[in-house]
Fold this protein.
Amino acid sequence: MDVKNLLSTIQANKRLQAIIVGLYIVVTFASLYLAQKSVIAFLLLLASLLLLYFTSFSNRVKWLVGGLVLVVLLPLAASQGEAYQSYMEVATLVGIYIAMALGLNIVVGLAGLLDLGFVAFFALGSYTYGIFATSQANNFMPFGHYPLSGESFWVFIFIGCLVAALFGVLLGIPVLRVKGDYLAIVTLGFGEIIRIIFNNLDKPVNITNGAMGLASVKPPELFGIQFMYPSQFYYIVLIILIAVIFAVRRLEYSKIGRAWKAVRENEIAAQAMGIHLVRTKLMAFAVGASFSGMMGVVFAAKQTFVDPTSFTLVESITILVMVILGGMGSVPGVILGAAIVTILNLQVLTELTNWLNQLSLSGVIHVPDALSPAKMQRFIFGIILILFALYRPQGLLPAKNPVFDEKDLKDTDSNHPMNTGVHKGGTQHVHLDS
Amino acid sequence: MSILTVKNLTKQFGGLVANSNINMEVQQGSITAVIGPNGAGKTTFFNMVTGVYQPTSGEILLNNESIVGLKPHQVTKKGIARTFQNIRLFGAITVLENVMVGMHNHLQGGLFSTILNLPRVKKEEKEARREAYRLLEYVGLESFFNEEARNLPYGAQRKLEIARALATKPKVLLLDEPAAGMNPKETNELTKLIYNMREELDLTIILIEHDMKLVMEISEHIVVLDHGEKIAEGTPDEIRNNEKVIEAYLGKGAAATAS
Ligand SMILES: Nc1ncnc2c1ncn2[C@@H]1O[C@H](COP(=O)(O)OP(=O)(O)O)[C@@H](O)[C@H]1O
Ligand SMILES: [Mg+2]
C-alpha cells in the first residue's frame, strides 16, 4: 500500500521526478566515472534512459535528457579508464542490434509477417561495403580501383540501405504468396541461402572470398579523421539509430503504419478498406530490411572483417527474440528487448562466468567448466524466454495504441477534402414511421 | 438508373453451385435486400461483387463498367464498400484508427513525406482524425473512440464496421447481416441508421438480413435466393405474398408477422 502511495505521489509530481532522475543520473555517472571497472555502474547509467521513459515529461524533454546521457555523459564517464573501448564496443553493438530489432519489428510486430531469415539483410549491407572497401572488388569489377577510400563509407550507408530494401522486395515477391508457418519456413530458407551464397561465391569468380571472408575493410574517414575505435563508431551508430527511431515512430502511427496493422489484424478486411495487400507487405519488408542494411555497413567497417559466420540462423532468431521479449509492435519495448539481450550476451553472462571462475580459483565453490554461464548462454536464454512467455506474454513494454485527444477531434468546420458527407446530428432526423 | 448490374453470375466451389445464373439490377439510391435461407449463396454473391471471389462465369457492371477480375482493394476504389457477416474488425487498434484505415485511399501521405513529417501529412492526418470522429458520431460510437475495437460490445462492433466502410466514401454499400446478434432496440436504431445513410449520404445500399421486420420496413426491392438460385424478386409486398418464397424461406407464419 505504501509503495503504491509513493509511486502515485511521484507520478503526480514532475519536480520530484526531475529530482529523482537527475540524482540517479548524477550518482550513476559518478560511480562509473570513479569506478571504471564497474560494469554495474555502466549498466545503471544506461538504465537511466529507462527511468526517463517512465517519467511524465514531454517527449522533447525526454529526448533532450536522453541525448545528453548518450552523447556526453555515457562516453565521458566511461572514458576514464582502460575499459573505455570495451564499454563503447558494447554500447555500439547494442545500438546496431536495436536498429535491426526495430526493423524486424516492422515486419513481425506491425505487419504480422514472421521472418526467420532477417539477418540476411544485415549480411547484404555488410558485404556491400566489405566487397568495395577491400581489394576484393578488383576481382570482378571491370573499372575502378579498389578498395574505395574510407570516405565512400558515408555513401555506402545509403547504398547498404537501398540494397537491403531492394532484396527485401525481391524476397517479398515470391514469399508473400505463402502465409503464416509457411512464410516462416521460406524466410528461414532465404536467410540460409544468402549466407550459403556468400560462403560459396568465391568461384567461378571470386566475389565474396568465400569462407575466408573479407579482411582489412577500410575504416570510415571524414575530413582526414579515420574511424577505428568503438568510441568513434558509437557516434555513427547513435546518429543512425536516432534517425531510425524517428522514422519508425512516425511510420507507426501514420497511414502506412495503420495499413500494416490492418493487414496484421485481418487481411480480408484490410483489402476491403482499399489497402493493396502486396504493396503494403513489400513496404514492410523493404523498410525493415533497410535498417539492417545500414547497420550492416557500419558493422563491416567496425569489425574490419566480414565472413559468413556472423550471419547464421542463430542471429536471426536472436533478433526475433529481442522483438518478442521487448513486446511485438512496441518501439520502446523492442529497444529495451534488444538492449537487454545484447548486454546479457556480451556483458552479464561473461562477467558472471569470470566471477564464478574467480570463486572456484579461490576454492570457495566449484563450477564445472561445462556449466559456465557463458557456455550456457542459450540455455539461460531459453529459460528467460519461457518465463516471459508465461508471465509477460505481451513483452516487457507492450505495444500501446495512440491516445487521441477529444478536443482535437471535434471541429466546427466541416468543409474540407476528407469530408464523407456525414454531419453531427444527421441521424436525428427520423424518417421512419415505425 | 441501374448503378449495379449483374448478368448470369455463377459461382461453383467444386461440384457445389453456390450462385447459379443470378441476374439483378440495383437502382441508384435504392435499398435492396438479398434474403434467403442459410447457405443460399448470399454471402458468396457479396464476395463476388467485392472481388473476394472470382465468378465462375457472368458479368458484374458498376455504372456499366465491368468490375469482374478486379482485386478487392480495386473494387473499393471504384466505390463499393462492405461489412462482414462474421465481424472482421482490426481488433488490436483503436476504434478511431479502424475508421481511419477506411480512409486509406483518400490520404496522400507516402513513405518519405511521412518519415519527414511534412506539414501536409500532419494536416491531412489531423483532418482524417476529425472526419473519423464525425463518422463515429454519425453511427453513435463517438464515446468509444480510444477503445480497442475488440473490446466493444457486439452491436457496437457491427456499427463500427459500417462507419469504417463509410470512410472509404462508397457509392454502393453492401451490408452482410448487419442486425445479426443485435437486440430489438439496437436493431431499431440500425434500421433508422441504414435508412438515413441512404437519404443523407447519396448511397445505394444492398443488405443481406434475416430480420424480416427490418427488411420489409426499409427495402424498396427484395431479391430472394435459394440454393444458389434467384427464386423471386420484387417489392416487399410482392415478396411477402410470393408462394415460392413463403415455402422456401418465410414460412406461413412469418408472412403474417412481417407485415
Ligand atoms: N470458399 C468456399 N469454399 C467452398 N464452399 C463455399 C465457400 N464459400 C461458401 N461456400 C458454400 O457456398 C454455399 C453458400 O454459402 P454462403 O454464400 O455463405 O451462404 P449464405 O450467406 O447465403 O448463408 C454454402 O454451401 C457454403 O458452404
Ligand atoms: Mg452469409
Notes: The CA atoms of residues 20 and 99 of chain B lie 35 Å apart. The mean pLDDT of chain B is 92.
